[in-house]
Amino acid sequence: MRALLVSLLAASTAFAGHVYIGAWQKQIIVFDEDTEKIVDRIQLANDVPNGLMLSNDRKKLFVMNAKDAAIEVVDLQTRKVENQFVLNEGNTRIRFFGMAADPEGKLLYGSSITVTKEIDRFSIGKNRFHVIDLAQKKIVKTHDMPAEDQNAFRRGAGFRVSPDGKYLYVFRDVIKIYDTTDFKEVDKIDLSKPDNPDMERVSFGGGDDPHADPATIISVFNSSDPIVHRNIFGIARFDLNNRRFEFTPVGPTTGGMMGLRLSPDRKRGYTVGMSGSGGNLRYEFIVFDMATKQIVKRQDFPGRTRLSFGISGNGKNLYIYGAGETLELYDSATLMHRKTIDLEADTTTGMVVVP
Amino acid sequence: MKHLRAVNRKAQRIEEYVAAAQGDFHALQDSRPTRPHYPMGCSIVFSPGWEVDSSGGTAGLCQPVERDLYDCYISCFWPAQVPDHLNNYPGWTSKCASATKDWRNIDLVFP
After folding, report:
1. With contacts defined as CB-CB under 8 Å, which chain A residues touch B90?
2. Which CATH number belongs to the domain containing residue A316 in this structure?
3. pTM (2 decimals)?
4. Do the Cβ atoms of B105 and B95 come closer than 8 Å?
5. Distance (Å, rounded) from C-alpha A324 to C-alpha A133?
6. Cα(A112)–Cα(A122) distance, rounded to whole angstroms?
7. Element at B71 (helix H, strand E)
8. Is residue A31 within 8 Å of residue A317, measured between CB atoms?
9. CA of A348 to nearest chain B CA: how many angstroms apart?
10. Alpha-carbon Rg of chain A, whole angstroms?
11. A156 found inside a domain
C-alpha cells in the first residue's frame, strides 16, 4: 500500500499543474499553473500541430498535424518526442476528422479521408474509420463508413474509446457507438454535441477534463423531442463500458455552448454560452451546481470571435484561448478576468491540462 | 409523376396518407436562420486582404484581423488569400510565430 501511495504521489507531483498547447511553429507550449509562466517549448519533429490528446495513463501526449498527417508521441516526463511518423504517401494525403487512443495507448482510432493528387484533379476518398498502430507506424485497418454517415464527420467529431477497448464512441449530431473489432454500429443515442458555430476544430478525444475518469464522460448535450423538435440542453453522464447514460434537462437551447469543464471536487461545472452572431456575438460563463444540475451563476465576458475554453488543474482558473497568441485567465469563483499571458506564438490546438 | 392523379377513393386515401407522412409541425419548432453558404471556407473572393465572416459581413472577424490568419488556416484551410501550406509553400510562415505581432516577417509568395 505504501509503495502504491508513493508511486501515486510521485506521479501526481512529477507532472503537477502543467498546461500543454500546440502552437505555431511546430511546438507545444508548456505552461506552469503554479508560477503562471511558460516553462518549456517542446519542439516537434514535423509540422504545425492541429490536435493534442492525452493518453489514459497521463504520461504521453499524442500530437497530430494537418500537413503531413503526422503522428508524434511526446513523453511528458522528458518532454521529448519519443515516436513519430508520417502517414501521407506519395500523392496521397490523409485528412483526419477525429481521433481517440485505446486504453493502452498503442492504437489510435478515428475517421479520415484520403486526398489523391492526380494529373488533372484531386480524388477524394470515402470517409472511413481507421486504426493506427503506433508501434508499426502505419494504418493497420480501415473500414468505410455507411453511406448515411459519409458527410456527417466533415466538421469534426469527438471520439472516445471505452476503457475496456470494446466500443468506439463518436459524438456529433447524434452519438453513435461502434464495435472496435468490426466497426459495426451497436447503439445510437439521440443526444447531440452543443452547437458551436464556426468554432469547430478537428476534434480529438481526451484532455478536456483534467480530472476525468476514463470510464465516464460528463458533458453538456442537446436533446430534441420527436414531436415539435424543441431543443433543450442538459447534462449527460455516460458510462463508457456498459453504454449507459443519464440525461438531466436544464433548459431550452440558446445560441451555442462549449463543453463542460468540472472542478476537481466535481461539485461545479463551467461552460461558455454564446448568443448572437457576427459583430453581435455575446459570451457568458455559465456555472452549474452538479448535484442539482441547476445554473447557479452567469457572467458576461468579452470573448474573442473564436475561442476555446479550459479549466486549470486546481479548478481556480478558467482559460480562454485560441485564435491568437494570448491565454486569458479568469477567476472561477468571481468569473472576473485576472490576467492575460502572452504565449508569443499563435495557438493551433486545444489544451491538455495535466494536474 | 405530376401527370398521375387519384381517380378512386382508395388512391385518394393513399395520396392523403403519403402527404400526412411527409408533413410536420413547424409553428413550434426551433430553427436557426438560414445563413449564406460559402462553398470555399470563409471567403469566396480571391483578393488578398479581403475576407468575410459567416454572415457575409466583416463584423464577425477576429480583432485584430491577424488573429484570423493562422487559426483559419489550421482549422478551415483558408483557401484564397494565403499560400498553400499543405502542398507548395510550407515555409512561408517560418519567421512568424505570432501573426498579430510578427506579420511583417511573413514571406511573400509570387506564384
Report:
1. 47, 67
2. 2.130.10.10
3. 0.85
4. yes
5. 34
6. 16
7. helix B66-76
8. no
9. 6
10. 20
11. yes
